Amino acid sequence: MKSASHPKVTEEVKAAYVADGVVKVTGVVPETMLSDIAGMAQRELDNPGEWVTDTNPGSATNRLFTSRYRWKTDAVVNRYIYESGVAQIAAALMDSSSARLYFDHLLVKEPRTDAPTPWHQDVPYWPFLGKQICSAWVSVSEVTVAESSLEFVRGSHNWGSYFAPEAFDGSKNWTNDFEGEPAPDIANSRDDYEILGFDVGPGDVIFFSAWILHGAPGNSGSRRRTALSTRWLGDDVTWYPHPGSDPTVTDDLTTAASGQYPDDDNVFPLVHQT
Questions:
Q1: Quick one: pLDDT band at residue 173, thresholds 50, 70, 90?
Q2: 115-126 per-position pLDDT tens digit
Q3: What CATH number does the domain located at 11-264 have?
Q4: pLDDT confidence tier of residue 248, bands split at 50, 70 and 90
Q5: C-alpha distances in Å from residue 168, one per residue of 57, 126, 144, 234
Q6: Rounded to an integer, what distance in angstroms lies between the CA atom of residue 25 and that of residue 89?
Q7: CA–CA distance, 17 with 98 (Å, rounded to integer)
Q8: Mind giving me the DSSP string for 47-103?
Q9: Where are the domains of the chain?
């Protein structure tokens, strides 16, 4: 099948994604959509949904809040997924003819939030295998690396490693079922790696492979950082539930069969097809 294309995915942009495992694409999401996302985030903070983590409920500072799987119930998230163009860009970067949504992920860091996002790979946490898996991360406002933007170990998506997932808060949870090699301690050995970071403006999107090591600091700034990340599945992906993977979607909730392409439109909707 013919791979997807998009005007913003130039040869230079695609080459950067292939070599580095991550690329920033500027000016993807319009201001009106960003404003809607900010409003949705505030409503979710005020009335949290089902799949939420919240380190400091109700606080205006030092609070990390996340919410997932809103695409079916929230019109703003649904519109973003189907109308922003991120699915088509993701497919083009992954050299895939299609892009299915795995899940949407709202991430809010209030000012002076201490908790960083530890260095990790995404793919061991997720019940899929395949090289054509990526995330698209957009902030509703300008964010600098120094304050709270994402950082990546350049080229680590090509290491062939599959690091054991760990709970971000250090607690014992479903990740403890996984046995495997721990991720390297990037935070305490930064000089040993080539680390990429991106300052982003409103509407810029960071696309990155599920295999790349990445992390983020807390939020040392004086403003809330609101980001929406969407997770995308390409043509080569297979369903792979395993010990330590996210239990939110399990075998009994999907028609996807282990080792097969997850063509379950009710759970993993097909958003782009070339």
A1: low
A2: 788 899 999 999
A3: 2.60.120.620
A4: confident
A5: 17, 15, 22, 27
A6: 9
A7: 17
A8: S--SSEEESSTT-SSS-EEEEE--TTT-HHHHHHHHHSSHHHHHHHHHT-SEEEEEE
A9: 11-264
